[in-house]
Amino acid sequence: MVFNKKNTQVTDLPCGGVSVVLHATEVFRIEGERLTLRHGGWDTPTTRQRINQCFDEWLPGYCVHIKGHDWFLDTPTHFYIPFTDGMVIKLNKRLP
Length: 96
Hints:
- With 96 residues, the chain is mainly beta.
- The protein has one domain (3-90).
- The chain has one helix at 45-58; strands at residues 3-5, 8-12, 18-22, 25-31, 34-37, 63-67, 70-74, 80-82, 87-90.
- The strands form two sheets. It has a six-stranded antiparallel beta sheet, with helices on one face. It has a three-stranded antiparallel beta sheet with strand order 6-7-8, covered by helices on one side.
- The longest helix is centred in the middle third of the chain and has 14 residues, at 45-58.
């Protein structure tokens, strides 16, 4: 485990990836070239903030925006993807 504070736990994965758990929900996971995002039904500002903090750390240029009540994943090319719980995105690179 790399980080464990209050409600957030960050763990390095054996494959070189990372897992971020907010309360009991794994909100962010990178494994190889695969990114998995979840809100686990907790589509709250805190969940969105935690995911965006992960992007700032590991995948700059990505972020989650909200419009009305809907979440969107914004990619580095500003391609907006509707956010769905458990969505998987294929990345063009692995974590260093």
